[in-house]
Write the structure tokens for this entry.
Amino acid sequence: MTELNFKRFTLNQRIQHIIFFGTFILLAYTGFPLKFPDEWWAKWMIASVGGFDNRTLIHHYSGLLMIGVSVYHVVFHLLEKPRFDVLFNLQDIKDFNQQMRYYLKLTDEHPKFGRYTWKQKFEYFGAGFGAVVMGFTGLLMWKPFEAMYYFPIGVVQIANLFHTWEAVLASLAVFIGHFYDEHFGKYPNLSWITGNISEEEMRLEHTREYEAAMKDNGDISGATETGHSNSMGLITIFSKPVFTVVFIVITIWMLWISYQVLVDAINTYVL
Amino acid sequence: MYLRAGGGRIIVLLFLAGLILTGVAVAQVNNGDVSCYHCHPKQVNEFEKSVHFNKNISCTDCHGGDIKINGTVISINVMTKDFGGSPSKLNLTTFCSKCHAQVTAKYETSIHWEKVREGRTGSASCIDCHGLHNILSSKNQDSLTHLENIPLLCANCHENQTKMQAWYYGIKTDRFDTYKKSYHYKSYLSGGNVLATCSDCHENHDTRSEDEPGSAINPANLPATCGKTGCHPGANNVYVYGGKIHEEQSVTLFFIDVKSLVTYFYIIMILFELTFTFGLIFLGITSGLDIRRKNHD
């Protein structure tokens, strides 16, 4: 039996993803040092991009690029052919319920996910919400005096508050949640480069979509035949530990940042 | 025999010693401060490093008195009428204005001078910012008034609660702390070119209360202050929607404080996110029921 590859991401989507995560990493790298300017790592990070003014420049223009790719994403997919299975529906609640019962060993049956799992939908709309919040507040903070033409300075300060909080939340979701779920846990998941997932992955992780595709035995237009290729070999062996270390370092860093902002906020607003 | 010969040598030695002493005396005449140095070495040393040294200014210009040559030693004649010792805070400006008339006049419009005149001697005068004998050019990195040292210079008094309480009731002592939260300070701290310190907004010499019409931080003058060349050229509307930069402005929408609302929302969101992410990772690993692993086994 030949192995089928299922098309999951088009080239357009893969390029959008690369631009989005590229600017995301640049923004986090040049943004968090500004929040904690006294820390040693912040000084090191600012120096590594060639000084404070370069940091500002990179942050501003990465932000613009991210806004650009976000707007492009929405416009393109609305014009192309909107797909409604990306929206939340009743099935997600059932799937979530089923998955929790499965984890707690109350049932033997794993939920059969469609093309998008409930968690992927959360991440997708979380990224959308984050891009909107970060984009608008970032523009306000970039041009505070132009902003003050329309709003009092308190609004600019609120933009600042939003920007920090959403940055922490988004970085937690991406650097820990998304990394673990889609890249670390499924290592090596190369669908973000090739756009394809194997038949086995399709059958296990998107069972409902797989079954629907195979039922008609003709609705697998996106699938391509391929030889069996699991030979990542040496690259996998060496990159997995590196990837693990990077993941753990970023996780610790993110937890430290979350702790700091939470303690600061609780001291200021709650206590 | 020996003594006689020795006597001759002594005469020669005395003559040489006399020559050397005369040389020293001549040198002392050239350097008018050497004699003051005998009793005030610290002050003279500091003065010799200052920007005033070798600019035709000597001790007498500030301390009064008259340079007198008394034998081989020169000193300020303390007996002349105008010897003043240390200038008092109130008449200090009369000395500085001899050369720095414009800047002194500016300073004399400031709140600092107003307080000095009211008799609050702790309020800042020329020497409190520029130093006493060791006045350096503000372009010098070591100068108290160098751009990068200004926040600490101002904080020296303005962050000090006891000083502030003693002099001027009601002034806030968290101005440096609130400045630290600003982009201006963070840029300053990280060596950015885009930075503003205290004096950029509050002015260095004519620092005035915001209530005064001529003050740089009076709401009417904020557009000019913020809109300085190289700062925020588009700042011509600050008056309309301006606010206090050192203060957290509370914004109320339908009787709710928006800042608290945003903070509470995100505290909950982040705790939720952390619990959920790590909870699912934990469940996935420990239950051994990860969908991939299970199906591979």
Q: What stands out?
A: Chain A has a mean pLDDT of 85.
